[in-house]
From TrEMBL:
Key component of the ribosome quality control system (RQC), a ribosome-associated complex that mediates the extraction of incompletely synthesized nascent chains from stalled ribosomes and their subsequent degradation. RqcH recruits Ala-charged tRNA, and with RqcP directs the elongation of stalled nascent chains on 50S ribosomal subunits, leading to non-templated C-terminal alanine extensions (Ala tail). The Ala tail promotes nascent chain degradation. May add between 1 and at least 8 Ala residues. Binds to stalled 50S ribosomal subunits. It comes from Hydrogenibacillus schlegelii. GO terms for biological process: rescue of stalled ribosome. Associates with stalled 50S ribosomal subunits. Binds to RqcP. This is Rqc2 homolog RqcH. Residues 464-554 form the NFACT RNA-binding domain. One of its GO terms (molecular function) is rRNA binding.
Length: 596
């Protein structure tokens, strides 16, 4: 992956492609990413430099990322454009095998003087950064400012001198002969105990080696010369030469959630792989596969934070309404106090006392003590209690209404948070549009310039799976989609399922449902609910015709009758085979609820 030697190889390839090219345009698709459009005699390239913590990267993009909504350039982008736009790339280098690439740019300032800048791309994992410095090493701009509160060792702020990451006490392997490595390995024989020990020694002692390259080198040593000082030294020197000089085709192992790549063949790993002519081709394919998913996860994470913050405020509001209702329980007591004061005015002193004792009409042997305002007459105290009664009565009515509304919103937000766990790009866009329409999040900023063709007018479709008996199982991915599934797509006699008393998806079985289909649909309903990680989740099922939506209810909220309940445990080993069965036929046509 991105270790020091890989970055050195990447910088060399970028240097060959971009040196002499002119930076014609600079864009900032998000806060962490810059795109430089570089025109060379042979082609125009899109150089992407990003510090996104989940995927810091520097590569040439075939489809460069774009802003989701147009707007004025940020002050940061304006400053970077001021220094680099129309400049020429003089060189691309790597700094000390330290996962830092430097793009050297020569540009002309407002006075016509030639100036030199360095764009430093620190590909250092979660601490990655993109930093622009001048010829004197002074920081001009950065995508991620670092203050003294964040790091005592190095601050990254405009105006400060650039300080590289802490130096590593490791050996630069470039140019070191085999004999020197043999001597070092003989002095540390524990490094040759096995492949794992040699890989750990390489990452600890040799600059530019990350864990992946170290394991590959140790594997090559064991496979060829054996785990001897001479064999390990030969593999080390050979690996460095291959990576830097391009002695082998770079390989990418897609590997699902844990892809791996490097500038040579990864012989120590099994599984499918792809070979490329150079690392630039590899990175282009790799990132254009994973960036859409990363973007969705990033947007989903931001939406989750916004919804959780709103949910936290809503919980406080619900607590206030419940406190009001608890206080309003005393309303009848105040009405009764007022009536008793009027009934027993003769026994209540005119003024000067804070309490009156009167007989309890319901229990003559009991005395009631009524609080009074000493400054008021009996009639005025009675009126005071009547006013308190009316106020609490009105407060109760308002609190009950607001509490009902707040609890409905809470259910809706909890369900929206649930859908974020499985949202793809289409489902996320659908959910954001639904939340914006409900006034729960801000609507997206309107695009600048002429309207572009989008899928905004097309409603997303429910997920579709097949039961082991061949029945079609449909699953909603948002509140609005649940409504469309239940009241537009489903037929009256289709079977409808939902996790009982839990936020979750609407599930519909199209047509007759056998015993196996019913259980599998219940597993799906439990899996796509808040009970995903629970055992014995109750799932209600009933014909669609028994489901109705109350007037004014939020998306996805329904009431139903005539239900039966099935208990299932949505373990992955039971659910995954169902999720893997996808129908090949076209999506079902939408029908009116009373159509078959």
């Amino acid at each position: 992956m991105f270790d020091g030697l890989f970055v050195a190889r990447l910088a060399a390839e970028l240097d060959r492609r971009l040196s002499g090219g002119q930076i014609q345009k600079i864009q900032q698709p998000d806060d962490d990413t810059l795109v430089f459009f570089v025109r060379t005699p042979g082609a125009t390239y899109a150089l992407v430099a990003s510090r996104q913590p989940e995927a810091p990267r520097l590569y040439l993009a075939h489809k460069p990322p774009r802003r989701s909504a147009e707007g004025p350039p940020s002050p940061r982008l304006q400053r970077i454009r001021k220094h680099l736009q129309n400049g020429r790339i003089a060189a691309v280098t790597a700094l000390d095998l330290d996962r830092i690439a430097a793009v050297e740019v020569e540009a002309t300032d407002e006075l016509g003087d030639r100036r030199r800048f360095r764009l430093l791309v620190e590909l250092t994992g979660r601490n990655a950064n993109v930093i622009l410095i001048d010829a004197d090493g002074r920081i001009l701009e950065t995508l991620h400012p670092v203050t003294a509160d964040m790091s005592r060792y190095r601050q990254i702020l405009p105006g400060l001198p650039y300080v590289p990451p802490p130096p590593q006490d490791k050996i630069d392997p470039r140019g070191v002969p085999e004999e020197e490595w043999i001597a070092r390995l003989r002095a540390e024989p524990e490094a040759l105990r096995d492949e794992t020990a040699l890989a750990e020694w390489l990452t600890r002692r040799v600059r530019g080696f990350g864990p992946l390259l170290a394991r590959e080198t140790a594997h090559r040593a064991a496979r060829s010369g054996g785990l001897t000082p001479a064999g390990a030294a030969r593999a080390l020197v050979r690996t460095v030469d291959i990576v830097l000089a391009g002695g082998e085709r770079p390989e990418l192992l897609p590997g699902g959630d844990r892809p791996a790549f490097h500038a040579l063949a990864l012989t120590h790993r099994s599984g499918p792989r792809e070979a490329f002519d150079d690392v630039l081709a590899l990175l282009q394919v790799h990132y254009e596969r994973i960036i859409p998913g990363l973007t969705v996860r990033r947007e989903a994470r931001a939406l989750r934070q916004a919804l959780e913050a709103r949910l936290g405020r809503l919980e406080k509001k619900i607590a206030r309404h419940r406190a009001t209702l608890a206080e309003a329980d005393a309303a009848e007591r105040h009405r009764r106090f007022g009536e008793l004061i009027l009934a027993y005015q003769y026994a209540v002193p005119m003024t000067g006392v804070s309490e009156a004792a009167v007989p309890d009409p319901d229990d003559p042997d009991r005395t009631l003590r009524i609080p009074l305002d000493p400054a008021l007459s009996p009639a005025e105290n009675a009126e005071r209690h009547f006013r308190r009664y009316q106020k609490l009565k009105a407060a109760r009515a308002a609190a009950e209404k607001e509490l009902e509304r707040a609890e409905a919103e809470r259910r809706y937000l909890e369900e929206a948070l649930l859908y974020l766990d499985d949202a793809d790009a289409e489902a996320l866009a659908d959910l954001k549009a639904e939340l914006a329409a409900a006034g729960l999040i801000a609507p997206p900023a309107p695009a600048k310039g002429p309207a572009k063709k989008t899928n905004a007018g097309r409603e997303s479709r429910p997920e579709r799976f097949l039961s082991s008996e061949g029945a079609l199982i449909l699953v909603g991915k948002s509140g609005g989609q649940n409504d469309r599934l239940t009241f537009q797509i489903a037929r009256p006699d289709d079977l409808w399922l939902h996790a009982k008393n839990l936020p979750g998806a609407h599930v519909v079985v199209r047509g007759p449902a056998g015993e196996a289909t019913l259980e599998e649909a219940a597993l799906i309903a439990a899996y796509f609910s808040k009970g995903r990680h629970s055992s014995r989740v109750p799932v209600d099922y009933t014909p669609v015709k028994n489901v109705h939506k109350p007037k004014g209810a939020p998306p996805g909220f329904v009431l139903y009758r005539g239900e039966k309940t099935l208990f299932v445990t949505p373990s992955l080993e039971r659910v995954l085979p169902i999720l893997a069965r996808r129908p090949d036929e076209r999506p079902p046509a939408e029908t009116a609820p009373d159509g078959a």
